[in-house]
Amino acid sequence: MTLEEIKQLVQVVIESGVAELEVTRGENRVRIRRTARSAAQEMVLPPAAAMPPAASAPNPSPAPHAEAAAAAPAADESLSYVKSPIVGTFYEAPAPDAPPFVRVGERVTPGQVLCIIESMKLMNEIEAEIAGTIVARLVENGSPVEYGEALFAIRPD
User: pTM score, two decimals?
Assistant: First the structure.
């Protein structure tokens, strides 16, 4: 089964609202399972271009971080956006009790880990492709992300 076929199956699960889908082709088997929490969040998430205001409103973290996320312009051409290469769950830290990989206002370098996206029980590290300063984190920790969804806004050096 190819990655493209798996992405299509994930999209079918999202669009249909089914809780679980299992497909077997020869020796390959894929099981896609949605939790009630993920399903509710996927229905209320706005498009990636409108993410900063929606992501900052329910943010339980300190106010300076929320203000920084809200202050990020949705269509600032001087910013570079780090986008999700896969469908999965966004995690800002390697473990629940660990500090985040990066914070708003920090400088990043190419190859530096920004976050993890869990997809099918695999932890995928997402790295910075450019040097710059993190202007905004555009998604909440633990929330589902779509392919191509903006995760961070970076002001290049």
Answer: 0.53
